[in-house]
Amino acid sequence: IMSTLTVRLPDSKHDRLKEVARARGLSINKFIEELTTIAIAQQDALTRFTLRASRGDVDKGLKALDKLDAAFK
């Protein structure tokens, strides 16, 4: 099942959106679909992170970040 969504954009933004989609070899519809997939994935990751952070130990988390910083210097 698919839904139809109407979005109002200024003409200049619509033109730019067409250019970006075309440069990526996509239709505007497919490009918007990919962008929404990314936005949903980011929101899901934030939700998971926030939930885990609320259950976690701050000192342990900071030590893990320090290890990551050291590893990527």
Q: Could you walk me through the main structural features you see in this protein, from its secondary elements to its overall organization?
A:
- This protein has 73 residues and is mainly alpha-helical.
- Helix content is 75%, strand content 0%.
- It is built from 3 helices and no strands.
- The model has no long low-confidence stretch (mean pLDDT 93).
SSE blueprint:
Blueprint (H helix, E strand, L loop, with lengths): L10 H13 L4 H28 L2 H14 L2
Which bin fits the share of residues in helices? over 70%
Q: Largest sheet, described in full?
A: none
What is the typical, i.e. mean, pLDDT? 93
Proportion in β-strands: under 5%
Please count the beta strands (DSSP E, at least 2 residues each): 0
Low-confidence stretches: none
Main attributes of the structure:
mainly alpha, elongated, 73 residues, 3 helices
Would you summarize the structure shown here?
It is built from three helices and no strands.
